[in-house]
Amino acid sequence: MNDGTETAAADPATPNSDSWQLYANCLGVDPDLFFPERGASTKEAKQVCQSCVVREECLEYALANGEKFGIWGGLSERERRRIRRQRALARAAQQTRTA
Ligand code: SF4
């Protein structure tokens, strides 16, 4: 999703012709839904994401670009932070094993 600070290429609402964003379920959906006020429900946005065919690509994009706000790939900021932490721990463990 786009929080208004991303370039057009990173905005599922204005996709490139060769982009996964072209297939986003959230195209045409109010972007505010994906950037709820603190404490507001994320349920509706997550429902849109649930059947999105590019959910994985969206999530990986958000993780790779350190997106800190909004719902991406059906996950909240907190849920993405947890994944980043888990991956960092897994990388550290892998490095320890190979060192
Ligand atoms: S996973 Fe959700 S936020 Fe990402 S492209 Fe699909 S509908 Fe949009």
Topology readout:
Layout: H1 43-50, H2 55-64, H3 77-98
Structural class: mainly alpha
Strand content: under 5%
Report the principal-axis shape: elongated
| Most strands sheet | none
SSE sequence, one letter per element = HHH
- End-to-end distance: 39 Å
Number of strands: 0
Helical proportion?
40-55%
Ligands bound, unique: iron/sulfur cluster
**Poorly predicted regions:** 2-10
Overview of the molecule:
- The chain has 99 residues and is mainly alpha-helical.
- The chain has one domain (8-98).
- The chain is built from 3 helices and no strands.
- The chain has helices at 43-50, 55-64, 77-98.
- Residues 2-10 have low confidence and may be disordered.
- The structure holds iron/sulfur cluster (SF4).
Describe what is shown at a glance.
The chain is an all-alpha fold and 99 residues long.
Question: Which key phrases capture this entry?
Answer:
99 residues, single chain, elongated, 0% strand, binds iron/sulfur cluster, 40% helix, mainly alpha, 3 helices
